[in-house]
UniProtKB/TrEMBL annotation:
Keyword annotations of the record: DNA-binding, Transcription, Transcription regulation
GO molecular function (one): sequence-specific DNA binding
PANTHER family: HTH-TYPE TRANSCRIPTIONAL REGULATOR NIMR
InterPro entries noted in UniProt: AraC-bd, Homeodomain-like_sf, HTH_AraC, RmlC_Cupin_sf
Species name: Saccharopolyspora kobensis
Name recorded for this polypeptide: AraC-type DNA-binding protein
Spans annotated as Disordered: 252-279
Length: 279
């Protein structure tokens, strides 16, 4: 989850993945000459770039600007809906990858675009795309980016934590395992990642918690499995970062999953048209 996979290549035709991605399935590093929006109608999509890692569970939309190298990994059975954004519209969105909360209007307009069989340059398609971009421009951006280091000393530490987010080791203990001093590592966290060791590990754990809660894990089990001393400290950290309690987030994710199973969003018709979008 921490690295861009493989040598990046330019994908110019939107060939590719319209079938649901299996749990853990990866899409190799690549980039586009257009912007791309990525919405997981089910499951969760992790997007990795050299600048960091973004987690987008259901009800979130990931934005990848033109020419940003990115790779992907799915969590759970993930049905990804991808939307191309022309360069002239991409200029109105952030210059760096971002994750947005998808309002009801944004989500339904987005899905309508992908299920619409009209030409991509039709007036209706242009109008719907304008609505999507306008809604994104005012949508709340979530602080879900986990920055990744380039310094090999720091990367040795973050790799250990990626492998086991619940690892309770102090920075000094991790430094002894990787051959660096606590002082050096603390300085590198601040200078390279602009956050403390504690902040980085907490964000990593919150990212993993989003994935587990979205799959239906309980709040208590998630807290214990990811290394919090008790559920209350997990609830406080999650709420501070995400803006809602983990219990409410879990309930919202499960309700959306149930609606899809009952056909409430009627999304299945969009599969053929999604085939011309690439991850």
């Amino acid at each position: 989850m921490s690295e861009v996979v493989g040598k990046p290549v330019l994908w110019t035709d939107d060939s590719a993945v319209c079938e649901p991605l299996a749990h853990g399935e990866q899409v190799a590093a690549h980039f586009h000459d257009f912007g791309q929006l990525r919405y997981a109608a089910s499951g969760a999509l992790v997007t990795a770039t050299r600048a960091g890692t973004w987690v987008a569970p259901t009800s979130r939309i990931t934005w990848v600007p033109p020419f940003h190298v990115h790779s992907s990994r799915s969590y759970g059975q993930t049905d990804v809906r991808l939307l191309r954004v022309p360069a002239e519209l991409a200029e109105r969105l952030p210059a760096e990858p971002s994750v947005f909360v998808a309002s009801a209007l944004l989500r339904e307009t987005y899905l309508a675009l992908l299920s619409d069989r009209e030409p991509v340059d039709s007036p209706r398609t242009s109008l719907l795309l304008e609505v999507v971009v306008s809604e994104l421009a005012r949508a709340r951006r979530e602080p879900l980016r986990l920055p990744e280091p380039s310094d090999t000393r720091l990367k040795a530490v973050t790799d250990l934590l990626h492998a086991d987010p619940a690892n309770p080791a102090t920075l000094a203990e991790l430094g002894r395992r990787t051959g660096s001093s606590e002082r050096t590592l603390s300085r590198l966290f601040g200078s390279e990642l602009s956050m403390s060791f504690h902040q980085w590990r907490t964000l990593l754990r919150i990212q993993r918690a989003l994935l587990e809660l979205g799959e239906g894990a309980s709040v208590t089990d998630t807290a214990m499995r990811l290394g919090w001393a008790n559920p209350s400290s997990f609830i406080d950290a999650f709420t501070d970062l995400i803006g809602q309690t983990p219990g409410r987030y879990r309930a919202t994710a499960r309700a959306a999953h149930d609606r899809r199973r009952r056909g409430g969003l009627a999304e299945s018709a969009s599969g053929d048209d999604a085939a011309d979008q690439s991850t």
